[in-house]
Amino acid sequence: MMFYIILGIVGVLVLYVIAVYNGLIKARMQTQESWSQIDVQLKRRNDLIPNLIETVKGYSQYEGKTLEKVTELRSRVAGAKTPGEAMKASDALTRQVASIFAVAENYPDLKANANFLKLQEELTNTENKISYSRQLYNTTTANYNVKLEIFPTNLIAGIFGFKPKEFLEVPESEKSVPQVKFDF
Length: 184
Hints:
By secondary structure, this protein is mostly helical. The protein contains 4 helices and no strands. The longest helix has 78 residues, at 2-79. The chain is rod-shaped. The N and C termini lie far apart (87 Å).
């Protein structure tokens, strides 16, 4: 009879160790998965930023090139020596101005500007997702680390070599307000 009692106690202890071990594995995996979410959002942000910058550059170039072309054509019209040169420059100027009106008419906010606003919104959403993912990571890390420190889970964690995870902290240099600057 005593044999069965000892066997029962050992069986319960083994089941307890298995349950605690599986709980630690689950907590560690949740921490890794929450880090993976941060990684995904960082990748998304890194993909969006060049598109945002190129859209801004493209919009500025569209504006700059169009105005440059209009100014150049106006100068050609004014500096034409013959009526043929003047008409040729005038026709080109008319086409250039018509293309500006067509774009403005079809896209009141200009398509490039709408793209910029869309990319800006997506970038803001991505930044919010990164922030949420960081919070989730720190929460799952805290849960995991607590399991590693409480008794008797800490004994089992020590036996199986579980190590605490580090929290994500914002470096002092990143706590200041960022300045966005486009160099064209």
